[in-house]
Automatic annotation (TrEMBL):
Protein's name according to its UniProt entry: serine O-acetyltransferase
Pathway(s) annotated for this protein in UniProt: Amino-acid biosynthesis; L-cysteine biosynthesis; L-cysteine from L-serine: step 1/2
Domain of life: Bacteria
CDD domains xrefs: LbH_SAT
Species name: Streptomyces flavotricini
Length: 212
């Protein structure tokens, strides 16, 4: 049995067994917590990716309701939402996976890794409706890009190969290859003085309100 790859270099037919084995090897290579192939089969990423492959095949052949139904099932099981119209390259990996969102016109290269709560989305329907029909609304992510926890890459931007996007970053513009994006670090405040007496006035309920 063979399958069509869905990545940018796709339409090269590869044996299904080879594709599935490569997916499992990718998790073993990139997650130190994965100790066996049997354990990898319990990863949400694997369930989401393999279901996406079937949904993408259906989407490309016009079976869009069935494709969306599979996508919804994968989201319920894995917490990862991948639109069946997206195109994903080889050796893709989502670590942990919860709350990852990948939009319809996203294009992902090879060897890309996402962490949980990453969004590859659009900038908003009010802008998308003004674009020409069929226009790209979502990011293109180059080969070997890593996107950290909670980061958002929004709109029809292009992320160059070998870039690193740090946790909680927001990217709205194109990035050249080998870019590094880091979100502002949280400021450390002076410690609370827990030994000071409590100011009882701070607990007073204003007149006309009700404490619950």
């Amino acid at each position: 049995m063979t399958t069509c790859e869905t990545g940018p270099e796709a339409e090269v037919r590869r044996p299904l067994r080879e594709v599935l084995r490569e997916d499992v090897r990718t998790v073993l290579a990139k997650d130190p917590a994965a100790t066996s192939r049997a354990e990898v089969l319990l990863y949400p990423h694997i369930h989401a990716l393999w279901t996406y492959r079937v949904a993408h095949w259906l989407w490309g052949r016009g079976h869009r309701v069935a494709a969306r139904a599979l996508s919804l099932l994968a989201r319920a099981v894995s917490g990862i939402e991948i639109h069946p119209g997206a195109r994903i390259g080889r050796r893709f990996f989502v670590d942990h996976g919860t709350a990852v969102v990948i939009g319809e016109t996203v294009r992902i290269g090879d060897d890309v890794m996402l962490y949980h709560q990453v969004t590859l989305g659009s900038v908003g329907w009010w802008k998308d409706l003004r674009r020409p029909s069929g226009s790209r609304r979502h990011p293109v992510v180059g080969d070997r890009v890593v996107i950290g926890t909670g980061a958002s890459v929004l709109g029809p931007v292009t992320i160059g190969a070998d870039s690193r996007i740090g946790a909680h970053s927001v990217v709205l513009d194109d990035l050249p290859p080998r870019s590094r994006v880091v979100a502002a670090a949280s400021a450390a405040l002076p410690p609370l003085d827990t030994a000071a007496p409590l100011d009882s006035s701070a607990l007073t309920v204003p007149e006309g309100t009700h404490a619950s």
